[in-house]
Request: fold
Amino acid sequence: MEDHDGFRNLIGNFLSKQSEVISAKNGLDAMTVLNKGLIPDMIVTDTRMPEINGEQLLYNLRCSGMYGTIPVWVMSEHGRDGEEAHYKNLGAMGYLRKPFNPSILQEQLSKVGRADQSA
Reply:
């Protein structure tokens, strides 16, 4: 989830080379997608978005019986002290500070894919 169209498209295009990508403009759109039964293998979300932000989305996912185990990566351009630890305490699998190289995100996501296949 990313509210900035250009960045959402950039990340989506990069990740779509190796994965099927469903994009959402904000957390509310993401919850709508999930409620339609499209359960992703993983979620990448920004921290700041309108409607439902990344923290609220992560909290909603972790409190849910259906979506609680979906791996979530959080992206933030602000990177305040303690923010990474805060999101990991909420259940985020990874944290990336913007700007970042999309290859790093792809590498982290592929590790989860390999772990799922070996289980």
Notes: The two ends are 27 Å apart (CA to CA). Strands lie at 43-46, 72-76, 94-97. Confidence is low (pLDDT under 50) at residues 114-119.
